[in-house]
Fold this sequence. Notes:
Domain HTH cro/C1-type: 1-45
Number of helices: 13
CATH architecture of the largest domain: 3-Layer(aba) Sandwich
Number of domains: 3
Distance between the termini: 76 Å
Strand order of the largest sheet: 2-1-3-4-5-11
InterPro entries: Cro/C1-type_HTH, HTH_LacI, LacI/GalR-like_sensor, Lambda_DNA-bd_dom_sf, Peripla_BP_I
Domain HTH lacI-type: 1-55
GO molecular function: DNA-binding transcription factor activity; transcription cis-regulatory region binding
Strand content: 5-15%
Number of strands: 12
Largest sheet: 6 strands, parallel
Protein name: LacI family transcription regulator
Structural class: alpha/beta
Amino acid sequence: MTLAMVARRAGVSPQTVSNAINAPELLRPETLERVRQAIDVMGYRPHRAAQTLRTRSSRLIGYGVQSVEVDRSTPVMDRFLHALTQTAEAAGHRILLFAVPAGSRLLTPYQELVDDYSVDGFVLSDTTRGDRRQAWLEKHDIPFAAFGRMWSERQIGDWVDVDGTTGVERAVDHLAELGHRKIAFLGWPRGSGAGDDRAAGWKAAMSRHRLPVRGLRAESIDDVDAARTVALRLLDTGVSAIVAVSDTLALGCYRALRDRGLTPGDEVSVTGFDDSPAAAHVAPGLTSLTQPMDVVGAECVRLLLARIADPDREPEHILLEPELVIRESTAPPRSPM
Length: 337
């Protein structure tokens, strides 16, 4: 099926069919409708390479897939990728996935995709303090939007992020309202942007409720067994509740409690972050903070397409609030605190 065949069926010139695909605003509504009907009936699909030569747009958005880091869990990123792909396709673009290596070769695939595939821009995730990718893309005038902040004083580029501080504050508020007074925080090692953001929420809420924090903050890598070991030490301090920086660490708390013959929620309350599938299916159900990943994915695509259309626009930063999903893992303390 060729463009010329569509033109003959619609009774127009091949250039009119091309305008209907690439610049529909140039055509009268009745002409545009006639051409689109012919395209639908004949099942015509424009040749992507030819479109790229004409418009200098590949309609491709690059997204680098990294190994799972402490700031994100796999189920959460699956939801993000689905939303990203769905929104991009609705806007006439495709997501091009590629592997991102660690270390000195971090930027190599970005350069290769610009040179070899002429991608229109990139969506980033797993941003870190002083992220090299954001700085490199800005320096080379390559459009990008990020799921995650720059985590530095100089905020460059467009980004969408979830407000971990506010989310964890809500978890602490919930526990305080239940009557808990000794609430520990199990976080990631200091230096993680998202982890420090969530830890700030615990500290701020504890201060508002005039609750002690000394000796009640502990750290673990994002691993269930590692978290179990650290949580056992927190239990030795006599805490009645633990706010975990992720669902993975919260499940480590579950194991520690069971090692002591205790039940989450009944003896010690536990909260997580991410509302992963495990949160709803583990027994007892885990109280957790869910992130609006459908909105995050859609906003990343919107910001990127806006940047492509207007490279000089002011950077836009969007901070979304997570929602606390309350389940059986949080309950009033057994004895007055």
